[in-house]
Write a structure and sequence with these properties.
InterPro entries: PABS, PABS_CS, SAM-dependent_MTases_sf, Spermi_synthase, Spermidine_synt_N, Spermidine_synt_N_sf. GO terms for molecular function: spermidine synthase activity. It is a single chain. This protein is of the alpha/beta class and 283 residues long. 31% of the residues lie in helices and 30% in strands. A hairpin with a 2-residue loop joins strand 5 and strand 6. The longest helix has 15 residues. The radius of gyration is 18 Å and the shape is globular. The termini are far apart. Bound molecules: S-adenosylmethionine. S-adenosylmethionine (SAM) binds next to strand 6, strand 7 and helix 5.
């Protein structure tokens, strides 16, 4: 009997593995290698250059937490920019707000979107929403060339800071995001993990840059079983609103959005960080 496993190194001496039922697709694009798998434990999942992006079983925590924390902070958000996010999960969560008028998604690799539409309809099926415009180009270039302060919210749903995703962790990129956000704009970005050294170093580097650009710069946590250590972070940077003091939890609850991970108690609790994480961020 075939004993097929997908494995990912979480550190030089730690691996995470999923038993694979079927390796359904593989393609090398000009940007990265894309693979789709089926497993019993995690359902369908896909990798870019050998690293897990999303699995059917746990994608909900990432996509709900990147979206609902800033939305609950300012329920008047109307224009949103998503950078990366080719699987469509972040856009799916945004489309649940009828108040959002425009969602621009900038994904460098069109093949991620097209293959997600084929293999991952559970995340990609809202990419055809009438409010969504897809741009297939480098997010770094897109924000550089964007002239106006047009966005209320920018969500950076990126890969790790290696290869094509590296620029999305640069000071220059964060400065451009600040410039194109409205006076009360919010930026949420994929912020790596505090646990294993190589991820923690990137977490710290990203936070150090953002806190010098935005007046409010915080970090919040969530549980993502298939990302290194399972303990993962988003960065919350804002020109005006504080995610705890200014959030509208009662109004958010009234919207009746059904979620599997996020709730308005988590809105406040997710900003409470363990001591070793606080220390690392403050160092
Ligand atoms: N949730 C995932 C995680 O944290 O691992 C991220 C998934 S999402 C598929 C990441 C996407 O960012 C990829 O599809 C990749 O092509 C895209 N991406 C990477 N660098 C980019 C860039 N410079 N501009 C736009 N999109 C980029």
């Amino acid at each position: 009997m075939l004993d097929l496993w997908y494995s990912e190194n979480w550190s030089d001496e730690t691996k995470f593995s999923i038993k694979v039922k079927e390796h359904i697709y593989s393609e090398q694009t000009p940007f990265q290698k894309i693979d789709f798998f089926v497993s019993n434990e995690y359902g369908r999942f896909f990798t870019l250059d050998g690293l897990i992006m999303i699995t059917e079983k746990d994608e909900f925590s990432y996509h709900e937490m990147i979206t609902h924390v800033p939305m609950c902070t300012n329920l008047n958000i109307k224009n949103v920019l998503v950078i990366g996010g080719g699987d469509g999960g972040t856009v799916r969560e945004l489309t649940r707000y009828s108040s959002i008028e425009r969602i621009d998604m900038v994904e460098i690799d069109e093949r991620v979107v097209r293959l997600s539409q084929k293999f991952l309809p559970f995340t990609a099926d809202k990419l055809t929403d009438r409010r969504v415009t897809l741009y297939f180009e480098d997010g770094l270039k897109f924000v550089k060339e964007c002239k106006d302060k047009i966005y209320d919210l920018i969500l950076v749903d990126s890969t790790d800071p290696i290869s094509v995703g590296e620029g999305l962790f640069s000071k220059e990129f964060y400065e451009d995001c600040f410039r194109i956000l409205k006076e009360d704009g919010i930026l949420v970005n994929q912020h790596e993990s505090p646990y294993y050294e190589k991820y923690a170093t990137e977490m710290k580097k990203a936070h150090d840059k953002i806190k010098h650009i935005f007046p409010i710069a915080k970090v919040y946590q969530f549980h993502q079983p298939t990302y290194a250590s399972g303990h993962w972070l988003f960065g919350f940077a804002s020109k005006k609103y504080d995610p705890i003091k200014d959030c509208s939890t009662e109004n958010w609850d009234k919207l009746g959005i059904e979620t599997k991970y996020y709730n308005t108690e988590i809105q406040r609790a997710c900003f409470v960080l363990p001591n070793y994480v606080k220390k690392k961020l403050e160092e």
